[in-house]
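Exercise 3.2. Students should predict the tertiary structure of the chain below and write it as structure tokens, then compare their answer with the key that follows.

Predict this chain's 3D structure.
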Amino acid sequence: MSSEARDLSGKKADLAGPGVSTYPAVDKILPTDYDPVLGPKDTQKAIAAIKEHIEHGLSEELNIFRVECPLILTKACGMNDYLDRDGSRTPVDFQAGLGLDKRIDAQIVQAATKWKRWALKQFECGVGEGILTDMRAVRKDYFLDHDHSSYVDQWDWELVITDKDRNLEFLKKVVNKLWKVLRGAGEVARKMYPQLVGKFPDFPEELVFLHAEEILDMYPDLPRKQRETAILQKYPAVFIIGIGWTLEDGYPHEMRAADYDDWVTPTVEKNGKLMHGINGDILVWNPVTKRRHELSSMGIRVTKDTLVDQLKRTGQEHFLELPYHKMILADEIPLSVGGGIGQSRVYQYFLRKAALGECSVTIWPEQLHEICNKHNISLLR
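Answer key:
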């Protein structure tokens, strides 16, 4: 094996910061024979049907109800999502409150992950009950390409659980319910627009569960995104368990913030190896872009003990002084499981689109518009 194949520097570079990262690279990877199945009008009609199906389905399957969700949080509350743990993706900061002696230091939400857990108490949710939000956020530090944008739309959900539910089997049951709803939404779109049938393979029925450590064993010399691409050739829909824990090669599968998902708890032992983490991501193979495609990220949330452990491991113990983290330490907010489902990513996948910007309206650099036009992709403005 060549020295390049054994070089782990590619793994380190692959841990955080989504996107292709150069526009010539985007130009290379976009399909050269793209012919959108649905035009802009029918795309929006299909989006409305998918959205209705998913919101109703999640409410029924998970026993959750829709609530309003903040776009703005105070900087001091500690509830904003930092998405990773290397400080590379920071929120939009601003001051609010004209006429105040001291204006409010505020931030635009990057995700509602931590707010939702606190909100379970606000909305008086009991065990086995939870909330669903139609979340909007801004992530200014993304590279803007065909499947990453600064505008984020997600279904964010959170469910109250007990300590006995904090295990891998419970997580799998929840994930399978979610997969059933997502796949059903795809079928709704196909019935509404039969032209979606036939040109591409059917949506996969089975979601295969694999630990990040198992995938590393299969492809020990590949960086994370290449491992995901390889496993999706074998299984077109996977749930990757244990994202955030440091694997045997010395790297986590991907950076995951230390103060919401629990990636430190031991789960199963296989071939003499103890594996960790009760969280993960749903990824599918996108036959249009011929690339990996993430639909959802979720997990059982930290306890006060695993919160402290994970913050120690990441050198972020100062977070324990923030109000949100103090509430976890004092058992003032419930144990929970929750996740986020990318709305535009779901629409892109089920409507067989080559780019996120065919489904959602946001800002894109002119060079991306030019590249997409070359590939017969029209980004909404």
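Discussion points: DSSP finds twelve helices and 13 strands in the chain. The chain has one domain: 3-374.
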